[in-house]
Write a structure and sequence with these properties.
Blueprint lengths: L7 E4 L6 E6 L8 H26 L15 E3 L3 E2 H18 L7 H10 L7 H5 L6 H9 L4 H4 L13
Antiparallel strand pairs: 1-2, 3-4
Length: 163
């Protein structure tokens, strides 16, 4: 809504919940009713798309998406995203120890590396790329993957409590 249509969401001041309203700004003279109906139709279609993709994705376990990374090219000379993530998975434990990360944390990091970026193969992230990492966290929690593993998925949200 914010990225593609440039609308502002309306959030409840008391609860912080998203409300079923939006604010749009138009330049020049317009027919408010025509513009409102058009904007609502676009949002409804995007919502229906998201609902469809989410329903498709949730028919599988999050871990099942990892294999589909083989169909996503990372780099012409370096292979697919699956190739990349396999390399990451094979090196994180050694790297964690070199960096002085607590040994108790290494299994958590290895588990996260085994599933990291798997959401790139989901339908919803393919369609709504800005949800990468966010959907990984959501799908992983839905599948009862431990929170300490899941917190690593949301790109750019790394904590400092891993040492």
């Amino acid at each position: 809504m914010q990225k593609h249509q440039k609308y502002f969401a309306v959030i409840s001041k008391s609860t912080g919940d998203l409300l079923p309203y939006f604010i749009a700004v138009a330049n020049g003279a317009i027919s408010k009713e025509v513009v409102r109906k058009g904007n609502e139709a676009v949002l409804r279609a995007r919502y229906e798309d998201a609902k469809f993709f989410y329903k498709m994705d949730t028919q599988k376990k999050f871990s099942e998406f990892r294999g589909q990374l083989s169909g996503i090219l990372f780099h012409e000379k370096l292979g697919t995203m699956l190739d990349k993530m396999t390399r990451v998975e094979n090196t994180v434990a050694e790297l964690a120890l070199i960096l002085g990360i607590n040994e108790r944390t290494v299994p958590i990091i290895k588990d996260a590396a085994a599933l990291a970026m798997s959401d790139l193969a989901t339908s919803i992230v393919t369609e709504f790329t800005s949800l990468a990492g966010i959907m990984a966290r959501h799908y992983a929690l839905r599948d009862s993957i431990p929170e300490e593993v899941v917190m690593i998925f949301q790109y750019g949200k790394f904590g400092t409590n891993l040492s």
